[in-house]
Amino acid sequence: MLTDELVDLSRLQFAVTAMYHFLFVPLTLGLAFILVIMESCYVLTGRQVYKDMTQFWGKLFGINFALGVTTGITLEFQFGTNWAYYSHYMGDIFGAPLAIEGLMAFFLESTFIGLFFFGWDRLSKQKHLLVTFLMAFGSNLSALWILIANGWMQDPVGSEFSYVTMRMELTDFWAVVFNPTAQAKFVHTVSAGYVTASVFVLAISSWYLLKGRDLDFAKRSFRIAAAFGFASACSVIVLGDESGYTVTESQQTKLAAMEGMWETHPAPAPFTLFALPDDATRSNQYAVEIPWAMGIIGTRSLDKEIPGIKEIEAENRQRIASGVEAVKALEILRSKAAEPAAKEAALPVFEAHKADLGFGLLLKKYVSDMNQVTPELIARAAADTIPKVAPMFWAFRLMVGLGFAFFALFALALYYSLKDKFTEKTWLLRWAVWFIPMPWIACELGWFVAEYGRQPWTVYGVLPTHLSVSSLTPASLYGSLAGFVGFYTLLLIVEMYLMIKFARLGPASLGTGRYGDLSFAGQASTVPPGSPATRHPSDL
Whole-angstrom distance between the N-terminal and C-terminal Cα of the chain? Predict the structure, then answer.
């Protein structure tokens, strides 16, 4: 049996590399489509300022994309190095969407990003706009296939375990592709990326406005970010609700932990707005609840119950006991020493309990011989199926709170943009600037809820995490973990340095001049407002 240290280190290494990688992904997803909007304005109007906007924000996009690719490649290698048994057990299903992502999406994205940067003088306006759209489409298509793979880990549809090959085998490819869990995760994740990019553009544009520089450029960028961000924030809220509904259907344990639902409430269940969950006493202190809200959100009904943690754990005890029979039968079927008659008798037993095989495998953490299983060990394994509630409860609420804060920010930014008064609202501009790290925090919290809430499974209900790891030494994992943290931190420092450097330079880094410099108080600078020196040649 593998040590807890090895499993924990393998999980930590993957979590660290994944969370570093996802610092780059949301901006790539969202900024690509903002570039499409900006270049569309250039093609429709012919105004040079929109071309400059596309090229300037495209430069920041390129920096982020390059470093994001660097951090993402190692994640796929880790499935072979750190999670070898997982790769063997699930490779038929999990490998397919990742292969398609590499062949279809990543090559598309990488090809057109080159044309985006080097095709300005070689392609017509319309053809270059098509390139920009295909670059954005490729980025989001890449996310789709990755999230299809992750969605299957959350809800393993379209597959079945074969005792002959000792692997999960694909039975319905389209069930995997159109898995409701995967589709809900995709639309929610890309919408979060759109919000991230919108905050990024809004914040930097606000900084220019507060500094009284590049005014025409900043105003137009601000307006586009406000409109796109408002639509994206609405999508995040609506699609987040849909994502929560799919969790209710496929991962009731995760939902119960997110909501701190220790007991099964009569339908419709209340939503806990605030509480202090206590895992030791299995209760909530100082709970503030909204009646009926969780039942309506989680089940779309008034009469369907949402099971609480205690009920789920009791059900899991039964499934683990059933899983023990599946494991025993499987061992007979796989034994070379077993008589044909014994195998023939074991097969119907295995088929009857096969759905609970993963729950029986949870006990492999404690015993190697299923004949040594006791009720105490079953209870212990059942307790393992419940993630710690307090981290899930608060991570989810902080994420949701930030989602509504983004909605408020973009709603006000869009309102004052339509009124053409946003340059006067210094409090709004400062809010945007100081809020720039918040979308990344919200995205990381979302992934924490999704992945931590799935434990103790790598594939929910099918393969326990402790059986998925490679046979490595803790010393090797400590060394590689330190290397990854050091290298990724260096990449993050490079990213922030380059982003800050070019953001400070602004559109002047393109060599096309500045777009008007005024003190924010409205007093004239050395160049009077409206004079030719403050206007772009295309505006004359």
Answer: 76
Name 66's Cβ contacts closer than 8 Å, sequence gap at least 6: none
Overall size of the chain counted in residues:
540
Mark 174-187 as b/e (b = at least 16 C-beta within 10 Å): eebbebbbbbbbbb
Distant-in-sequence, close-in-space partners of 163: CB < 8 Å, separation ≥ 6: 330, 333, 334, 350
Q: Does pTM surpass 0.85?
A: yes
Identify the CA nearest to 459 among candidates 142, 157, 69, 131.
157
Indicate the SS3 state at residue 156: coil
What gap in Å lies between CA 454 and CA 237, rounded to an integer? 22
> Inter-axis angle of helices 125-154 and 25-45, to 10 degrees?
150
- Where does residue 461 fall: left (phi above 0), alpha (psi -120 to 50 degrees), or beta otherwise? left
At how many degrees (to 10) do helices 438-452 and 4-21 cross? Answer: 150
Task: Say how far apart CA 166 and CA 86 lie, in whole Å.
Answer: 12
Whether 534 shows a pLDDT value over 90: the answer reads no
- Three-class SS of residue 168? strand
Q: Which of 96, 12, 101 is nearest to 451 (CA)?
A: 12
Spell out the alpha helix ranges (H) of 22-47: 25-45
d(CA 102, CA 148): 13
Given a contact cutoff of 8 angstroms between Cβ atoms, the answer to whether 144 and 315 are in contact is: no
Indicate the pLDDT class of residue 285, thresholds 50, 70 and 90.
very high
Containing H/E element for 287?
strand 283-290
The answer for 388, left when phi > 0, alpha when psi is -120 to 50, beta otherwise, is beta
SS3 state at 170: strand
Q: For 280, what's the count of Cα atoms within 13 Å in the CB-facing half-sphere?
A: 2
Q: Is the pLDDT of residue 448 over 50?
A: yes
Nearest to 358 by CA among 93, 98, 83, 156: 156
Dist. CA 179–CA 159, nearest whole Å: 12
Q: DSSP letter at 162?
A: E
CB within 8 A of 191, min separation 6: which ones? 232, 235, 236, 239
So what's the pLDDT on residue 515? 67
pLDDT band at 422 (very low <50, low <70, confident <90, very high): very high
Mean of the per-residue pLDDT values of the chain? 90
Residue pair 450/22 in contact by the 8 Å Cβ criterion: no
pLDDT-wise least confident of 171-180, 300-309, 315-324? 300-309
Distance between CA 295 and CA 289 in Å, rounded?
12
**Amino acid, res. 128:** H
Q: Tell me the pLDDT tens digit for each residue of 16-36.
A: 999 999 999 999 999 999 999
Q: With cut-offs at 50, 70 and 90, classify the pLDDT of residue 530.
A: very low
- Tell me the helix, strand and coil percentages in the chain, rounded to 5: 75, 5, 20
